Amino acid sequence: MALPTQDERTMPAVVLRDLDKRPLEHALAELHALIEQYGHVIVVSSTAVPAAVTRRLHTLRSLLESDRIALFRPDLPPLGVAVLARQLRQLASCDIGPGVLASAGRLLTHYIHAGAVLASVAKLDRVPVSLKAHAKSWVPGSQFAVIAHPGPQLVRVGPEAALTGPEFGTWMLVAKGQLQSEWTGTLAKSWNVRGLREAPLPAESALWWGTGRIVEFCAHLADLSVLYQLVTSVRQTVCHWCGIDVIGDRCVFCSATPPAPEPPAPRALERRTPA
């Protein structure tokens, strides 16, 4: 899901629709045109998309024989993936190289708090669920608040329910499914978020959370200046294979890792003159 822009600087998103259903040559032409237009392409997708879509993406990248396509599947719920993609679109308007921008996805993931309010955790397999919580799922009217990232949390919604949130200022995005719940407003107050916005529920959310009776939420950094400072403060290196600047130990375009350090040369044995 492509979230709407927050300001005029945010780069527009390109949605690669129905990759597993369209003829291969059509998808190939579309991706090639994007590379020719922008130079580099960062494809952000959810782990909940069909396996056929992921296979098609790797096939397209292989056929194009291009090191200018980065495939990124963050371990986030679908709304968190959409938020991360918009953060990268915000940063794309700055003086940041494609390698650093693509690498920034892994960095920014650590600052996203993503979860949901669910009517049932009976089919939830993304977060550890106790037998007691499973049993309570069958009680009519039960609701559960779950954090999937950065660390798993699960509580039954009630007057004393609380979730540990970010220790820095964030905005909260809420996407409502087939569940009536106002608890996300209570959560936003307890987390002292700077604002709350609504968005449509991503198509993959029901599959990811195991139910369509859901209200998904995501607390995130929204200020471009903060995102820019965060990314540019990290040490950058040059990929030894394709030569672009990156953050971290793996190039997201060519997948190269730094070469292993060469072992030190053996020291020559000193000859000693017998006394």
Features:
6-stranded mixed sheet; two-stranded parallel ribbon; 275 residues; alpha+beta; 2 domains; 8 helices; Hypothetical Protein Tm841, Chain: A,domain 3
Number of helices: 8
Strand content: 15-25%
Number of domains: 2
The geometry reads as globular
Structural class: alpha+beta
Distance N to C terminus:
82 Å
Helical content stands at 25-40%
Average of per-residue pLDDT values: 88
Rg result: 23 Å
Please tell me about this protein's structure:
The protein has eight helices and ten strands. It has 275 residues and is of the alpha+beta class. The chain folds into two domains: 24-111 and 224-247, no CATH class; 113-220, Hypothetical Protein Tm841, Chain: A,domain 3 (2-Layer Sandwich). The protein has a six-stranded mixed sheet, with helices on both faces. Strands 1-2 form a two-stranded parallel sheet. Strands 9-10 form a two-stranded antiparallel sheet. The longest helix has 15 residues, at 24-38. The mean pLDDT is 88.
Summarize the structure.
With 275 residues, the protein is of the alpha+beta class. It has helices at residues 24-38, 51-64, 78-91, 98-109, 131-136, 183-190, 205-209, 224-232; strands at residues 41-44, 69-72, 113-118, 144-149, 153-156, 171-176, 196-199, 214-220, 236-238, 245-247.
